[in-house]
Amino acid sequence: MRHTLLLLITLAALSSLHAQNIRRSLPLQMTFPSFGDTLDVDKLRISGYTDPSAKVTINRDQVRVYSSGAFVARVDLQLGWNTIRVQARLSNQTRDDSLRIYRPAPIEATPIFPTSFDSRFFSPDSDIWLCDGDVLHVRCKGSPGGHARFSIEGLIKDVPMVETEMSPEFPWPGLYHGLVRLDNKVTGKKLQIHIELKGMDGRTVKQTLPSQLYVMSDKLPLIGQTIAATDLWNDTEQGIRMGKLSPFVRIHVVGKIGHRYKIRLSPSHVGYVASDQVQLLSAGEALSDTWINAVRIAFDRKKLQLIFDAGRAVPAIVRQIVEPAGLDLYLFNSRLQSESIAWPNSETELKHLAVEQVADGVVKIHADLTDGQQWGYGLEFEANRLVWTIKRPLQLALSGARPLEGLVVCVDPGHGGDENGAMGPAGTREKEINLRFAQVFAEQLTSAGSRVVLTRTDDRNLGLQERIDFARQSNSDLFISVHHNSIAASIDPLRVRGAGVYFYQPQSQALAWTLYPYLTRQGLDFFGRFQTSFAVLRLTEMPAILIECAFLSHPEEEILLNDDRFSQRLAANYVEGIIEFLRQAKR
To answer: How far apart are CA 126 and CA 173, in angstroms?
Structure first.
């Protein structure tokens, strides 16, 4: 019995000691990059965390461990597979980890001998629709120093291709380019494009492109209709956003390149829209110009409305003018039937309105505004009329204990759900810090009298369009998207830090510029002010900015961002900046 009791006590002691060892086991977690990643960089940043008292080596070089346990470093990457060894040591404990990272070989010139093509560089690389008179560009990469040409079956033969000079975009010899203006000899058929290259070794290689050319008939216009609100672009891919088309707008499709339709807005204007946002209508559907008729102006305390009689929804683009303050509205597939304007009985911020037919199928409406700061606008086609809404200046006291009384602010915590965003060296996930800081910011705004709406209050998936729709539906006066920054895989994480601000619409610039100095009042560096076409910044109904509060990738700034007192002070500074913006706008 005594032996059994002694054995049980011993086992219990060993179990307790084992549990303590488990609790005290040395942590080591890598946060960037992930095991097995492919990264085309010569120097790679590494980050992770361990016990703050541990010593860490990466490929046997010791690196600093911060008070959060975070560590960062950069290592050289060789072509092919790289093994990066990480070790943490504390007292008599050692933890080892390793990363396997692949660096692909750079694209090189195609060998001169034997003559051959590089199959990665044929263009067009997807089916393409063009009209009579359009120019088709054909490109290939192959052995340099040769003679290339292309043919289109049933249309044209042996179009010469020129070997182009090397450029930063294509830094290799052997890139051949040719073009031809199409005619409508062959329409309604899908045509193959054939390329052949005769090299310096006398050998000729041939290639039929997997993509096909469709020459559209000019006798029967192809009409489509937008399924939902969709962006209008100036190019076949990426490019500049020209505006947004409303749902159920009929458009004249004159081509398809990649995943975008080319549309004719007027005899002298074209644009591009996503093909999956357009329904092609049956042959014979009409696309006649619609009449734009008399304008009447209505208003209330918060908005002006310019109401036009219009037969149906048409493509429309708005251009905002900063100085002197104004807006230009262009309506396509439109004809002006009347220049009559019904003005209200009292004065408003609308100083002058000009309505004119500026080109065949193009009506322009110019609005001169008295207030320098614009607060937003929107377009809506409804029941055979176009309603152009222009927000009036905010009427806020900006004094007392609640200076923002009457202001509605939409605060948007970026990312969420499956979208984590960036990750700090110590494991801080951007989606979580975005939400945490947005809630602190919202509390500070509320204390100053503002009504705040958050696009999300928990960890959920939320699309960009959902955020935009939420801001519009809440009738917010300002939109502020909260993010925390990170750097590219090749950048030194200790050299990039600070706060930045982004805007897109001209009406948002003053908010961004005024708030920027307030982002850095807690000792953060200035990272930069940027104008860029982020989806959430395309909001026209209100000034909209995106804030990168600090760099999660910098271990010292990650520590600050996890300090509640720092967040409170930073949010208070943001509120001061908003008050200052509103004061300046009121002058």
So the answer is: 24
Task: Determine the CATH number of domain 222-280.
Answer: 2.30.30.40
Q: Which CATH architecture has domain 119-216?
A: Sandwich (2.60)
The CATH classification number of 23-103 equals: 2.60.40.10
Task: Enumerate the domain spans of the chain.
Answer: 23-103, 119-216, 222-280, 290-391, 408-586
**CA–CA separation, 482 vs 432, rounded Å?**
11
> DSSP of 210-241, one letter per residue?
EEEEEEEPSSS-EEEEESS-EEEESSSSS--E
**Domain 290-391 - what CATH class?**
mainly beta
Q: Strand pairing partners for 485? A: 551
Closest Cα to residue 577, out of 535, 557, 542, 549? 549
Is 338:356 a contact under the CB 8 Å cutoff? no
Name the pTM for this structure: 0.92
> CA-CA distance, 348 to 65, in Å (whole number)?
62
Question: Which string of b and e fits 73-96 if b means at least 16 CB within 10 Å?
Answer: bbbebeeeebebebbbbbeeeebe
What would the pLDDT profile of 172-226 be if each residue is shown by its tens digit? 999 999 999 988 677 778 999 999 999 999 999 999 999 999 999 878 889 999 9
DSSP 482-534: EEEE---TTS-TTT---EEEEE-SGGGHHHHHHHGGGGGTTSPPEEEEEE---
Is the CATH number 3.40.630.40 carried by domain 408-586?
A: yes
Tell me the Cα Rg of the chain.
31
Q: CA 341 to CA 331: how far, in whole Å? A: 17
Q: Are 110 and 145 in contact (CB under 8 A)?
A: no
Q: Do domains 23-103 and 222-280 have the same CATH topology?
A: no
The pLDDT score that the predictor gives to residue 24 is: 63
